[in-house]
Amino acid sequence: MVNYFLLLYSNCQNMCYSLWLESDFEKQLTRWNQKGFNPRCFLEFEGLTLKILVYEHISGGGYAEQPLPPDVLAEGFAMLRCIVADFRAAGHQVTTLLDCRLFKLNPPIEANYTSQVLYANEPQKILPNLAKNNDAIYIIAPETNQTLQSYVELAEKTGKLVLNTPQSTIAKTADKITLYVDLQKAGYPIPKTLILNIAHSTTQIEQAITTHLTYPLIFKPTDGTGCSGISLIENPTDIPGGVAKIKAASANPRLIAQEKVTGDPVSVSLIANGKKALALTLNKQQITLTKQTESSYEGGTTPYEHPKHKEAQILAEHIAESLGLQGYVGIDLILGQNTLFVLDVNTRLTTSYVGLRQIIDINIAQAIIDAAITKQLPQKPTLQGTVCFSKIQTTPPTPETYRKTTKLPGIITPVFPLPITTQSTALIMGYGTSLQEAQARLEEAKNALHTATTNR
């Protein structure tokens, strides 16, 4: 028998406490709702198992009836696999969705229940139905075209506990123009930025850039995720290609041009409760910026030691607190020897989580729950060791080769044998007590993957 201890707020903000037995919980909850009381959070629970519905957009059916992009899938599935494992390790039950093409492969994921998605737009119908049998919902999705915002809003409408930042706040951070205006007003350092319109002619765009900015530049969509749609613009001849990439990546008619600043691309991983935030680690990012081809995020290293790492973490905490963010947050920065610039705020799980969970002495998934329910943040965690993680491209595997790669050490996302693809992408990881050892373990995982996919 489980005892539930709930903190309740009435509409007039009076607090009430009740201790209920499990058998009476649903009846009591119904009575409180009928009387106008809104259950805000569990204050304490002992032996309580939450039922958590986790949706990751790429592997969970967001691309149903479309080709699955292997590069993005590698990151999405890795995040899904790891967060599910951590919710389970914390003692909770997990339900998730899987694209039918992945579902039939029986991928390495530890969810208690898995719902198969066959058709486009099916997740929007399945999620509310599955929510009825779950206590909480966690969404992992890109900000592009308001995807993250719309799914969090859908989750909020179910009346269940949502472990993400509220959709109203996501709307302010997902639009980079709004974000940059807010950051600039608050005095946070951002690269020199110009807002342009893709409908303008190349000549008009060039004239605006010449007046306000200095090459080299970065072109990016206003609602992009990761490196999608990003281009390096070294001179005016690169402008048409940069505009074309943004048109392909986003439906938003505006684009952002920023002066390219010198320094290391990094991210800060945080846990936030809507008012306070705690930086967990600084992560190095491996990013390739290109002109004509797609720019890419290749992987990273965590933790990353830098002369300005403490300053970066404090800045990230202030940003998360000023924006009212909740749950897991990733803030992208550029760190120079004497400079620090804010690039992006991700109100969602990021790929760095895959590495961070290996070296930290807390269960981050449980910390996400605690931040949403009790508003408690963990004590400053201890980090032990170093993790390097990377995406590796291979030729499409046979089903037998795929099964081999699911069992290899260091392989977080195996190479999936997907139809209508010319390549597959794995996400691999190496852990060590030092950076050198982690790099060596990463190389071992890479070699094992290469052997498995070439010796068929």
Architecture overview:
By secondary structure, the chain is α+β, with helices and mostly antiparallel strands. 35% of the residues lie in helices and 29% in strands. The chain has an 8-stranded antiparallel beta sheet with strand order 17-16-13-14-15-18-20-19. Strands 6-5-4-7-8 form a 5-stranded parallel beta sheet, with helices on both faces. Strand 5 (93-99), helix 3 and strand 6 form a beta-alpha-beta unit. The protein starts with a strand and ends with a helix.
Spatial shape: globular
Individual helix count: 14
Based on CA atoms alone, the radius of gyration comes out at 22 Å
The overall average pLDDT, rounded, is 87
Percent helix range = 25-40%
Which regions are unreliable across 5 or more consecutive residues at pLDDT < 50?
1-25, 35-47
Structure summary:
Mean pLDDT is 87; it is low at 1-25 and 35-47. The chain is of the alpha+beta class and 456 residues long. Helix content is 35%, strand content 29%.
